[in-house]
Design brief:
The chain has 34 helices and no strands. It is mainly α. The radius of gyration is 47 Å and the shape is elongated.
């Protein structure tokens, strides 16, 4: 029996070896299981079983085999396989412990150790591990190690803001170009990064097009991550429309990388902000895909959660917003954003006092972040109209009190509140701070820095503007002492002393340069004849005797201009005396009786058809023709025959265009909206 079993085992091992060489690990696993039926504690068979399970992607089952046979499969035998299974199952901390507990650190374990450190975001240790591997290894995987090394440098530049050192890597592959571009993005060199990405795209197309089995869709799928980084650069540069278009193109490709999709969806949400919230809600689903948490860094995942809370606020989901921000605050108690989001939500609910209290509590608990929180509190106070309280909050930020921007803001706000004394006090405190700082840095030499001098000048100008000339004198003297050749400062100082101490002003005025030294050598003729001159002096002509007398005389007589004859109306009749009141408005004339409303309406016959009114005699043309002509009444608006006198020019209306006719036409137009 033993001989038969040994012969069967030998045949099975031959089968395992042949399947392993062909890459058929499923069949190899069946043969290994048969061997284990013969001898369940066969170490080699157990090892082969673990390898077959790993090759088939059954990491959990492989780890189970290792854990159930710990007596046989000791850590020095199976350490790499166990750590690799834990790594693939995203049990990164367990994988690290397994590697560190291994008796011998083989090259395989060192390679895995570098990967584990990268996933744990321990970039300094990871960089050292890969440098050691590259230095002590010579095989066909050198290019992959260099790619991983460049990825570590890019991560340091992006997440830790470390200026990367030049590793001297030859960017011969698109992976190396891509990692180099990511490092440049971390440094803020966006234009250079874009050029690197374009080079990476070109190299990627070249390398993939050499394979005849690769389709254009496969190439676009491989380029998706490069295009995603290009879109991110466009977004940083403010080209949001271009970035959005490229992001959507990548999503249409439906890449299998859930991490890439999550990042792109998050970036689209940041572009949308409080607009297009329905699209943002759809994109949020991509950030919740399974496995995203294992593909992205901690800061990326944190940013996505922040944006989810903001989106909840924009969509008026107050409870959801509070829940998400509270969860974020418990995870990162020292982080500013969760508190700011909660305060913003309270402000949307008109609970400004509660928002300020929340921010104050956070500032008391975390003094290191108090400056940014207090700036937000001041902004809320300004929004409420409490400018003075906002100033008090800003002045409590000690590390910013002396900054020119803070001084400028406080002075502007105090000036708005007409509190000049407080504004001057802000200037004084800032100047004193710089005096003490300069004294401590220069051991009493006390030279003035440009910022210090600028503050003194601004303080002096402010005091002069608000009539505080006595207070401005000391500042001006300090400035003049620093630069005695500054004529402008000297002039200001003399002006200030002229109201306080005229004698001192006279003494200082002696330091002013003479008028000869200040005269400018300017060619007046050349200046007047230059391009853009608004005034050109006329060339003087020879003066005659009469002209000379006129020049000498005090009162020169102006030439009389000939009056042009006024144009008369075409229908002007010299026989008719013009209306003496023709220059007055119609309402101010003596014969104006007001407008006769409904005159024409009264003339229209009423009653049954064919009947006449009492005014029908006035419409009889025969009676009008036979009646004796009368002199025209100025301003008469009644209809007259052709034989009557002409209406004065100022009163005559264009023939055939009475006002009543115009009104009727306008009424017809208004009533015709529903026609045609």
């Amino acid at each position: 029996k033993m001989a038969a079993a040994a012969g069967a085992a030998a045949g099975l091992w031959s089968e395992v070896n042949r399947c392993g060489q062909n890459g058929d690990f499923a069949r190899a696993l069946k043969s290994v299981n048969k061997i284990l039926q013969i001898n369940k504690d066969d170490v080699t068979a157990l090892q082969c079983k673990v390898v077959c399970l790993i090759q088939n992607g059954n990491f959990k089952e492989a780890l189970g085999v290792i854990n159930t046979h710990t007596k046989v499969l000791t850590s020095d035998i199976i350490a790499f396989e166990k750590a690799y299974c834990e790594y693939r199952l995203n049990r990164i901390e367990s994988a690290l412990k397994t590697i560190q507990s291994a008796g011998q650190q083989t090259d395989k374990l060192k390679e895995l150790y570098g990967q584990v450190l990268y996933r744990l975001e321990r970039y300094d240790d990871c960089l050292a591990a890969y440098r050691d591997l590259i230095r002590n290894s010579q095989d066909e995987y050198e290019e992959e190690r260099k790619t991983n090394l460049s990825a570590v440098v890019a991560a340091q530049s992006t997440w830790e803001k470390v200026v990367p050192e030049d590793l001297g890597l030859r960017e011969a592959t698109y992976e190396l170009c891509y990692n180099s571009a990511c490092a440049l993005i971390g440094q803020g060199k966006l234009n250079e990064a874009m050029k690197k990405l374009q080079k990476a795209e070109e190299l990627c197309r070249q390398s993939l097009s050499e394979d005849s089995d690769v389709t254009e869709e496969d190439i676009e799928a491989e380029l998706a991550i490069i295009h995603g980084q290009m879109a991110y650069i466009m977004q940083l540069q403010g080209r949001t429309e271009d970035a959005l278009q490229l992001y959507n193109q990548i999503i249409k490709l439906k890449p299998t990388d859930v991490g890439l999709l999550a990042v792109i969806a998050n970036n689209i949400i940041t572009i949308n902000k409080d607009q297009n919230v329905f699209d943002s809600k759809k994109k949020v689903k991509l950030t919740n895909a399974e496995g995203v948490e294992h593909k992205l860094s901690k800061k990326q995942l944190q940013a996505i959660e922040f944006n989810k809370a903001l989106l909840a606020m924009y969509t008026n989901q107050a409870d959801q917003c509070r829940k998400l921000s509270a969860s974020l605050q418990s995870q990162s108690p020292e982080h500013l954003l969760p508190v700011l989001i909660q305060a913003a939500q309270l402000c949307r609910e008109k609970q400004h006092a509660k928002a300020v209290g929340l921010l104050q509590d956070f500032a008391d608990q975390h003094p290191a972040n108090a400056a940014e929180i207090k700036l937000t509190m001041a902004q809320l106070k300004i929004a409420q109209g409490s400018v003075t309280k906002a100033c008090m909050i800003l002045r409590s930020i000690e590390e910013l009190q002396h900054k020119p921007g803070m001084v400028s803001a406080l002075v502007t706000m105090y000036s708005h509140e007409e509190d000049i004394d407080s504004a001057i006090e802000v200037f004084t405190q800032a100047i004193q701070w710089y005096q003490q700082y300069q004294a401590s840095q220069t051991r009493g030499a006390n030279p003035k820095s440009p910022v210090h001098l600028s503050l003194i000048r601004e303080a002096a100008n402010f005091k002069l503007k608000h009539g505080r000339k006595k207070e401005a004198i000391s500042d001006l003297e300090e400035l003049w002492k620093q630069n005695p050749k500054d004529v402008h400062t000297l002039a200001q100082l003399i002006s200030a002393y002229s109201l306080v101490d005229p004698e001192k002003a006279k003494v200082l005025s002696k330091h002013l340069p003479s008028s000869d030294t200040m005269s400018l050598k300017v060619d007046v003729d050349a200046l007047e004849n230059s391009h853009g001159a608004t005034y050109v002096r006329k060339k003087a002509g020879k003066l005659t005797g009469d002209n000379q007398q006129k020049e000498q005389g005090q009162g020169e007589v102006k030439k009389k201009k000939k009056k042009k004859k006024g144009k008369l109306p075409k229908n002007y009749d010299p026989k008719v005396t013009p209306d003496p009141e023709r220059w007055l408005p119609m309402r101010e004339r003596s014969y104006y009786r007001g407008r006769k409303k409904g005159k024409k309406k009264d003339q229209v016959g009423k009653g049954t058809q064919g009947s006449t009114t009492t005014g029908s005699s006035e419409l009889d043309a025969s009676r009008t023709a036979s009646s004796p002509p009368t002199s025209p009444r100025p301003g008469s608006g009644a209809a007259v025959s052709a034989t009557s006198n002409v209406i004065p020019p100022r009163h005559q209306k264009p023939a055939g265009a009475p006002a009543t006719k115009k009104k009727q036409q306008q009424k017809k137009k208004k009533g015709a909206k529903g026609g045609w």
